Amino acid sequence: MRRTSMMLAGAAGLAVAAFALAQDQSDEIAKYREMLAGDNPAELWEMKGEELWKAKAGPRQATLEACDLGKGPGVLKGAYAELPRYFKDTNKVMDLEQRLMYCRMTLQGLTEEQATAAHFGSTDKPSDIEPMVAYITAQSRGIKMNVPMNHPQEKRAYELGKQLFYYRGGSHDFACATCHSGDKMRIRMQDLPNLTKTKDAQAAYTTWPAYRVSQGEVRTMQHRLADCFRQQRFPEPMYGSEAITALTMFLARNANGGVYNGPALKR
Ligand code: HEC
């Protein structure tokens, strides 16, 4: 596994380099990408995720290989490009992380607490979820986003997500839209995508999850949104909540037609 150790060294280098990267400069990230010569440390998460996916676990000692992510049991290719979507068996619209939680509970017999443990990992408490999400999403690389909106519940989730996107509140009276519906907006040195525009929405959505250079971890969409709730001075949303799925539905559907290209590498 020469490649793995090389990439580990690369990841460690990046963590150190992240110090030097006090504030975002898009060209700095471009330089790191060049340095890595196309290697993204997220590949390590993908590899670990594949192992976890295929390993017997939980009270039922089952693997997750029979998990249905919307395209039939065990079908991973292209599944993420069509999520969130309506699932008949739960009668709910679910995003990837909710569905993964559901599969771990139903197939492996984990409790909800176990299936959501360390959903945002750290060095001393690594996540099983982030690697599995990296593995699953990677199977949609190169595939066009094609989030369905046929079922009434899919439409409902989209509308709810849209309302949440424009809902103002909190100490600063911010909405997602405050920071993400103008062109060429920046906070400090960070470019803010205009998520109401197809091109920006596609570029943003199709690159999550991402290996965050500043955090040395692969972060999922749930993490991205939890962090933006923080930026909005809202209380931290519940992991896997209906509100996050609705917002994800709004963002994902607006990215339809964009080619999925995650897990990516970000500041
Ligand atoms: C106070 C401003 C602010 C608010 C409010 C805010 N965000 Fe953000 N958002 C940011 C910043 C800053 C970044 C870039 C963060 C970084 O690079 O670390 C970002 C990044 C993102 C990204 C990733 C973009 C990419 O290209 O990778 C998404 C998606 C996103 N926000 C969605 C939302 C949603 C949905 C909401 C409402 C719940 C929201 N944001 C509220 C400031 C905000």
From TrEMBL:
The keyword Heme applies. InterPro entries: Cyt_c-like_dom (IPR009056), Cyt_c-like_dom_sf (IPR036909), SoxA (IPR025710). PROSITE patterns: CYTC. It holds the Pfam family SoxA-TsdA_cyt-c. The keyword Transferase applies. It is found in: Periplasm. Its EC number is 2.8.5.2. Its main location: periplasm. Residues 1-22 form the signal peptide. Residues 156-267 form the Cytochrome c domain. Keywords: Electron transport, Heme, Iron, Metal-binding, Periplasm, Signal, Transferase, Transport. Heterodimer of SoxA and SoxX. This is SoxAX cytochrome complex subunit A. The gene is soxA.
